[in-house]
Amino acid sequence: MAGMVEIENAEKTYDGGFQALKGVSLSIEEGEILALLGPNGAGKTTLISTICGITMPTGGSIRVGGHDVVRDFRAARSLVGLVPQELTLEPFETVWSAVRFSRGLFGAKRDDAYLDELLRRLSLYDKKHSQLQELSGGMKRRVLIAKALSHDPKVLFLDEPTAGVDVELRRDMWDIVAKLKETGVTIILTTHYIEEAEAMADRIGVISAGELLLVEKTTDLMARLGRKELRIALSAPIETVPEGLSDYDLRLEDEGETLIYTYDTQAERTGIARLIGSLSEAGLSIADVETTQSSLEEIFVGLVRKEDDEGDAA
Ligand SMILES: Nc1ncnc2c1ncn2[C@@H]1O[C@H](COP(=O)(O)OP(=O)(O)OP(=O)(O)O)[C@@H](O)[C@H]1O
């Protein structure tokens, strides 16, 4: 089955000759939440702008709900809503007129019941007749979401929804996104925060220098992140892992001088205390221990750095 958003080999070279997207392919399922994670200038905004039809791709193809974003622009555009990075609101406008105006821009038929329900869902109903300048920062962000959803799109794009907001507001935004998912909306968000991607997304795509480096289920990535290694330097080298230690996930390195124990940081017990006991029962003595973690942060930084190095070498 084709995904709600199908991106095949999308490229974007800006007028000045800068290539911001270098052949990105990605399929996003209906009802899925995908987070695009990447450093500044990676191409996240460019990618979502091309899907929304704001920027023209210069190569490849992008379809939303089966409609090509270039050839079938109107149909594709009517299926998407975009919450931009910047707070762009008219201070004297009311919440109600802002959302009604946005719906009108899409040529959608007036439907006050839908808009009322939307405001309720976003906890803005009480503020329906307030001017936008009277709202708190968090409420203004919700108004942007309400505007983006005013024409009942199937796909919602959130470009850095929590950039520069405090922790409480960030969590509030995460709750809103979770609620929207329940209504079946497909959500694509960009973020710099790994924690945010983890909290909200079903899948995470890492983008760097215009390339999609990986797309993986959040749970799989987090499982990888949860793995930690305990490096045990032995007082004397051994040739093989002793029989009595076969229950543990152990491997030998450094010509038998280091035993490496891999464990899950998210498990209830790491097994380290028991392992130390078993090592001494097996007659091994420990010279030193050290732990290392392959965090998503490291995976991410490592991936991005590798790209940079390759870029420099090219
Ligand atoms: N209109 C434009 N003309 C030329 N280059 C552009 C244009 N818009 C973006 N770029 C360049 O394309 C690259 C990708 O930019 P983009 O805004 O997509 O990155 P991003 O991943 O969204 O970054 P950030 O996290 O900082 O928002 C950057 O190097 C940027 O300078």
TrEMBL record:
Q: Which InterPro entries does UniProt cross-reference here?
A: AAA+_ATPase, ABC_transporter-like_ATP-bd, ABC_transporter-like_CS, ABC_transporter_ATP-binding, P-loop_NTPase
Q: Name one Pfam family in it.
A: ABC_tran
Give the ABC transporter domain ranges: 5-234
What GO molecular functions are on record for this protein?
ATP binding; ATP hydrolysis activity
Q: Does the keyword Transport apply?
A: yes
Which SUPFAM superfamilies does the record associate with it? P-loop containing nucleoside triphosphate hydrolases
What are the protein's UniProt keywords? ATP-binding, Nucleotide-binding, Transport
Annotated PANTHER family: ABC TRANSPORTER ATP-BINDING PROTEIN
Q: What is this protein called?
A: ABC-2 type transport system ATP-binding protein
Native species of this protein? Answer: Roseivivax lentus
